Amino acid sequence: MPVLALFDAAGEWQDTLVCDGLIRQRLEPLGLLFGRIDLPSDLPPAGQDAGTDWRALLGAPLQALWPTFTPAFIDRVSLAPDPSDGDALRPQFIREHHHDDAEVRLFLAGSGAFYLRAGGGLLALLCDAGDWLYLPPGLAHGFDAGAKPDFDALRLFADPQGWQAHPTGRDWPAKLPRFDALVDGVLAQTGLEDGE
Ligand SMILES: [Fe+2]
After folding, report:
1. To the nearest whole number, what is the mean pLDDT of the chain?
2. 44 belongs to a structural domain
3. pTM for the full predicted model
4. What is the pLDDT of residue 84?
5. Is residue 48 part of a domain?
6. How close is the Cα of 103 to the center of ligand 1, in Å?
């Protein structure tokens, strides 16, 4: 289930929300939508998914986006907890950027965190398997899955070139917890255990 951590502009932790309704109130003004679907049990393994009809597999809740968001490009990002796997990509993912197109991200396995700016502060949305996120065109964001990334996700774009990232050139504050520290902080504050 998604968890939203709120920070001030310096990256100091302010609050943690675990209720979907409260999280939605914070994210909808940004044009950001999120939800959760039951993942099919017959997902093809990464690397063996050529020809997969993702629309049929993803189910009705996500297909409800199709009238306004028709994915023309679906990209699968699957990283194992091997430092050599994530080292090269981590700086690219975490740097603040935006896309000309909307981006939909669906987590098939593992977890990761999106970083955003809102109302003069910063937000971190922690997602895991089954969570999906709709980022509207132009909304600046970053993504991190930690020093040993372990996630499998689909990225869907309506424009075949929409995945191209435009860096904003802004840095996240040093105090803003990156994924591993974020998870530790969420566990400490909520008492949630992995998998709950
Ligand atoms: Fe992105």
Report:
1. 90
2. no
3. 0.91
4. 61
5. no
6. 7
